[in-house]
Specification:
Blueprint: E1 2-6, H1 11-26, E2 32-36, H2 39-44, E3 52-55, E4 58-60, H3 68-77
Parallel strand pairs: 1-2
Antiparallel strand pairs: 1-3, 3-4
Length: 79
Amino acid sequence: MNIKVLGTGCKKCDKVYDLILEILQEETLVAQVDKVEDLKSIVAYGVMSTPTLVINGEVLFKGKVPSKKKLTEAIKKRV
């Protein structure tokens, strides 16, 4: 599984990234997790608001910090 958190380094972006790592550890799941902070790379996904979560190339949760429960559901659905 490949997970990307798109964001320019704001607190909300960091929160999503930290939640993802926490969920993966709790659920004992393995994934490649990347923080994408380069504006050109973010825009290439067709999004203009951050944080944005991308799992296996699918853009999810644009412009908000989803709840831990919603993040867990999204990850488990795509394992």
